[in-house]
Write a structure and sequence with these properties.
Blueprint: E1 4-8, H1 12-24, E2 28-32, H2 35-41, E3 50-54, H3 62-70, E4 78-82, H4 87-96, E5 100-103, H5 108-132, E6 134-137, E7 142-145, E8 148-151, H6 154-165, H7 173-177, H8 188-203, E9 209-212, E10 216-219
Helix pairs in contact: 6-8
Length: 220
Amino acid sequence: MKKNICVIEDEQDIRESVKEFFEENEYTVFDYSSAEDFYQNQLSEDFCGVYLLDWTLPGDSGIDVVKKIRTQDKISPIFILSAKSSREEVLEGLTAGADDYLTKTFSFDELAARVDNAAAKFELLLQKSQLEDFRLLPEANAFIKNGKTVNLTSREFTIFNYLVQKTGEPVTRDLLIECFSNEEKMTNRNIDVHVFSLRKKLKEVSMHIETVWGKGYKLI
């Protein structure tokens, strides 16, 4: 899974500092200065990652944003950053649906550690939920996901079967070629063509093959 983080913070210097820090740590950062800005540009999108937001925003508060996110996304990690630090305020944020709460005296090292841990757990949860309703049908070169049968060619199934065994791990083209007999004379180009076709079929059941540059492919 790509590391994504959505930052909602009205103070420009804080927002830009957080954005720069996480970009340096290989996150893709989506940043917004208000709840309204977020609603118009991000809320309806299929975002997959961590939310990091301020409590005090112009218009809707961070608490309002948390509640709105939770109406359509029950599992993405949400962090509240706030100058508010009383026990009652922390409990209000967590009760609204946030997973963690940091006061604005936080250090970037602490923030990064918490976000990285949450992102790693989130990725494992996604992988587990993705494979819960899943069954391979080797005899038919097919699989069932969420009650839907997806038919593959024999070569597509061979590639897919190996990627399933290595879910979440990069797999090189050379390893995929080794899944075939020498008589089939598979090449890197052959692998790429079959992966391209697989991607279109997997999209029907919300499964994805990610390109890992310099390494190969990863099922996520």
